[in-house]
Every structure is written in C-alpha cells, then in structure tokens.
Amino acid sequence: MSSPTDYVYAFSDGLAMIEVKGKFGYIDRSGEFVIKPQFLDGISFSDGMARVVTEGPCIYFPDSGCGFANPRLVGGKEGGNRPSCKFTYIDKTGEVITPRRFDYARDFSEGLAPVRLGTLWGFIDKTASLAIPLRFEDAESFSSGLSRIQMNGLYGYADKSGAIVAAPQYKYAESFSEGFAVVGDGEGRFWYVDKRGNQTIQAQFAAASPFFKGLAHVKLLSGNSADPSVSFAYIDAGGRPVFRY
C-alpha cells in the first residue's frame, strides 16, 4: 500500500477495512487494495457483503449500546444540520448491489440481511430482492437459522421464510448460539430457550451470556446458592454448574 492509513480494521471474511483520508476501502491478506478507498463509511465484510454509505455528508446512530448517545458524522465536518445516512451493500469486487438505499441496515448472515425502510424492518437477499416483507419493529441478522425480531414491543424469533417460530413474548432477547438464546422479563430475570421458545434450563439468572463451546457464564439470583459468597457460575448445556465463584 502506498497511501498512508488513518485506521486499519481487523480481517473479516478474508478482507480488512482500511480508512484513508476519510474514505473506506478493503485490502486482502497481502496488503493490497482489492476495493480502493471510495466509500464515506463502511463496516467489515460478512457473508460476502459489506454495508456502506455512498452519499453524504450525513449522520447516523451506530448499532451499539451507546450508539444513540454518540451519533456518527459521515463525510463532513462538525456543525450544521445533516440528513440521516442511507445505506447499501457492496460485494467483494466493490460493486454496489442495488441502487436502492435503506434507512438502516445490518450484516448479511446466512444469505440474508435485515434492512429498514421507514419504521419497519424486513430482509433482502444478495440480489437485493426483498426476501422477507417489511413487517417487524426490529430485526437482527440470522444466527442458527433464526432472527430475533420485535413486534408490538416484544421479542420473538422468525425463520428464513419470515414465519414466526417463537411468538414475540419477551421484553429482552438475544440471538441464538449453540441452540440456545438468552431471554428476559425486563425486570432482572434471564433464562434460556430453544428454537421454539421453550425454556430449556429451568433455572433463572440475574444475568446470562450466550453459550460458547458448550458453556455459558451466568450470575446467580440472590438465594440460589447455599454459599452466600458465590455469585457467578459457568454452566453446561444441561444447566449444571461446572465452576462457581
């Protein structure tokens, strides 16, 4: 690479995003640009696609816990009123896959990506065709064949046909990992469900993390341990503690 870089991101899906003088491009593992810096904003590749911003200046709120408190200014300097960013996708040749622009968009996964137009979310495929109609209040990228969706203020899960497989009934929910998803009542209680929304581990917890390599980290509810000094545990897929502290 001959150009100085402003920021180098981690490799994902075989490419790394590079920011050069406020423009975003992608390099391969030899360090050569396969997509020259030309986009006003971007994210790393996932499932062969990357979300980008091609028009600006504009502003958006990143998809993170503190995103709404930290709006991101794209393609311009601070000051002045800026319109909201519009999003699209590129493939690994750098080609924009559709002239359509979305009000928000998330990673491709398992061949589909959640997109928002107006206030509703649906899913597009890699031809940018609407594979699942705009009908959800929120939608996450697919994981283990299911997407966490929101309807009427509650979370549930939909499959890749758009069918609801676990009815929206949770005030809190996470994506599936290793066949389990963490859900909660919004009042400090969490538990694990299967792909039909059935509780798989009978215990409830004060905090719970996704399963990874067969284990999940949990915080025990007050009174759930005979030893008051024990607050946390790692549990297996059967809910059995393998380590407490």
How would you characterize the overall build of this protein?
It is globular and about 55 Å long. Helices cover 0% and strands 45% of the residues. With 245 residues, the chain is an all-beta fold. It has a domain at 1-142. The protein has a 7-stranded antiparallel β-sheet, with no helix packed on it. It has a 4-stranded antiparallel β-sheet with strand order 1-2-3-4, with no helix packed on it. A 4-stranded antiparallel β-sheet has the order 10-11-12-13, with no helix packed on it. It contains no helices and 24 strands. Strand 14 (138-139) and strand 15 form a beta hairpin.
N-end to C-end Cα span: 49 Å
* Percent helix: under 10%
Total strands: the figure is 24
The helix/strand class is: mainly beta
**In angstroms, what is the radius of gyration?**
21 Å
The chain-level mean pLDDT equals: 93
Strand content: 35-45%
Shape: globular
Strand order of the largest sheet: 18-19-20-21-22-23-24
Low-confidence stretches: none
- Major beta-sheet overview: 7 strands, antiparallel
Question: Which series of helices and strands comes N to C?
Answer: EEEEEEEEEEEEEEEEEEEEEEEE
Oligomeric composition of the shown chains: single chain
Total of helices: 0
